Amino acid sequence: PACYHDRRRVPMTMTLSSGTFHPAVAAWFTRRFPAGPTESQALAWPSILEGRSVLIAAPTGSGKTLAAFLAAIDGLVRQAVAGPLEDVTQVVYVSPLKALSNDIQVNLQAPLAGIRDELRAMGLEDIADIRTLVRTGDTPAKDRAAMIRRPPHILVTTPESLYILLTSVSGRSMLRTTRTVIVDEIHALIDDKRGSHLALSLERLEALAGGPLVRIGCSATQRPIEEAARFLVGTGGLDPGGAPRAVIIDTGHARDLDLMIEVPRSPLQAVMPNEVWEEVWRSVSAGS
User: Fold this and answer.
1) Contact residues for 266 (Cβ-Cβ < 8 A; gap 6+)
2) Is the torsion defined by CA of 271, 276, 278, 282 positive or negative?
């Protein structure tokens, strides 16, 4: 897989001014983020737009979730401009926390509304709204039923609710049009039963969709990162040598360490005498 470790801020012209995004999407981003994309965004977007699975490891606040969503939103915008945007689910966002799912659904409203304004400014006022809905254990029954009747374009859910949808006829009918799946906070799911459960659900979702999904993983903490990429793409996403077929964007913090070993002047023994601990105390006190 391709790995990026450069920690420079990437100029916006690398992704937005080149025509990669729809003009309305690029205009909204330029207006909202005049300093340009963060490194993780600029590195992730080309691969996501090419239909490749991507794992993004970046610090909190670096815009990695928007990196995952904006490319998917761009695809929906292009469909809406080209013709009627069908009421089918194309993007599934999975979060380990119900609270985070609700936050994401709220936070998506700003870019969607902003892009809609840009489209109106361009004279494209008649395109369908891109809709998002949350499906968790707290979702009222009436909202679940309405979601089945008119599926959202972007579904925000949890591993458990995704599993439940995959076990119902109506849920499978809604999910079979999925093209992109985003797994947020992936580090919290890898090494426990929830992760095993989600890995199975992702394989079922891909089989239901009838073709490879674009899988995007996001987290601030992922070590070893190659194992996180293997979890993201699943067994079917590994090459013959076992390497994940995914682009790894690693822009996490790397800190230089200055290590020094200091021992007391008194001889070390199995049971330390008081003078040794007094030396240690003086050394620690002087350092603080």
Assistant:
1) 273, 275, 276, 279
2) negative
